[in-house]
Design goal:
The protein is α+β, with helices and mostly antiparallel strands. The protein is built from eight helices and eight strands, in the order H-H-H-E-E-H-E-H-E-E-H-H-E-H-E-E. It is 29% helix and 28% strand. The radius of gyration is 21 Å and the shape is globular.
Length: 252
C-alpha cells in the first residue's frame, strides 16, 4: 500500500491495491483473494465495504466469484494506456510504464516528417523531426508500439532525445519543459480503430503478410506548452486484443 495520502473511498483503495497486484503479476491467474471477512479485518473496514471492493474488481473483469471457493484472479491482457495517461504516470512517478509493464526496443533518429505528423506539429511536410520509438510489453505480450514525434529544435536543447536509449532524468516532456522553462499546459487526445497495415504488423512483431483481421486501437496525443507550441505528438498502436479503458468519478 502506498504511503501517499489517498482520498479515494476505502472500497476504491482496496480495489486499486489488488488491481496493482494483479497487473504486476504478483497475484497470478488462479490465485484466490482474501475472503470478505479477512479483507474487512485487514483493512479495518466493514464487510459491506470489503464486498463492494470485490464487486468493483469483478465488474472490471479482473476476478470472478466461485461459489463455495472464493474470489479467483482471472487471466486477461491489461488495457493499453493513452498518451495522456502515460503523461500522468510520468508526472507522478517519472516513468510512463503501467503496472506490470516494461519497455524495450528503444530507437531514436532524425527523419523527415510524414504529412500527418507535420500537420500535428504545425510544420512543413519533410521537415526534420525526432522520432522516438519503443515497445511496451506485459506478461501477455505487446501492449502497444509507441512513437513520439518531437520537433528537432528540442533535440538541440536536450541531446538525449535523439539517442536510441531509454531517457534518464524524466520523460521527454519533463526534459523539454526543464530545458525551455515552459511547462506543458494542455493536450489533445484522440482514439480510433483501424485495420493493421503490413507496416503496422511489423511494428507489432507480427507477420506482415498475414496481419490479424480485427482492428486495433490507435491513440494519439498532442502536447502543448504555455506559449502555444506543440512540443510532442505521440502515437500508440495497440497490440491485437488490447482495449482502452478510462475511469472517472461521477458526482451528483
Amino acid at each position: 500500500m502506498s504511503d501517499q495520502a489517498d482520498n479515494r473511498a476505502p472500497y476504491a483503495q482496496i480495489a486499486a491495491h489488488y488491481t496493482e497486484l494483479i497487473a504486476s503479476g504478483e497475484l497470478r491467474p488462479g490465485s484466490l483473494l482474501p475472503s470478505i471477512k479477512n479483507l474487512a479485518q485487514e483493512w479495518h473496514v466493514s464487510t459491506a465495504t470489503a464486498e463492494k471492493a470485490l464487486r468493483k474488481l469483478r465488474s472490471e473483469g479482473l476476478v470472478r466469484g466461485i461459489h463455495g471457493i472464493g474470489t479467483e484472479v482471472l487471466d486477461r491482457p491489461s488495457p493499453m494506456s493513452s498518451g495522456a495517461q502515460r503523461q500522468d504516470r510520468g508526472r507522478r512517478s517519472g516513468s510512463s510504464w503501467g503496472s506490470g509493464e516494461r519497455s524495450d526496443s528503444h530507437q531514436a533518429s532524425v527523419v523527415p516528417a510524414p504529412a500527418d505528423v507535420a500537420q500535428a506539429l504545425d510544420m512543413e511536410p519533410g521537415s526534420d523531426v525526432i522520432r522516438r520509438r519503443r515497445v511496451y510489453r506485459d506478461r501477455h505480450g505487446i501492449v502497444a508500439h509507441s512513437t513520439s514525434w518531437i520537433p528537432v529544435r528540442y533535440g538541440k536543447l536536450v541531446p538525449q532525445l535523439a539517442e536510441s536509449e531509454r531517457l534518464t532524468g524524466g520523460t521527454s516532456l519533463q526534459l523539454i519543459a526543464q530545458a525551455t522553462g515552459r511547462p506543458i499546459t494542455h493536450r489533445i487526445d484522440s482514439a480510433s480503430a483501424r485495420l493493421l497495415t503490413p507496416t503496422d504488423a511489423e511494428l507489432l512483431e507480427l507477420d506482415p503478410a498475414n496481419p490479424p483481421a480485427d482492428p486495433v486501437v490507435v491513440m494519439t496525443a498532442k502536447f502543448v506548452d504555455n506559449a502555444g507550441n506543440v512540443v510532442e505528438y505521440g502515437v500508440d498502436l495497440g497490440g491485437p486484443g488490447r482495449t482502452w479503458r478510462t475511469e472517472s468519478e461521477v458526482t451528483q
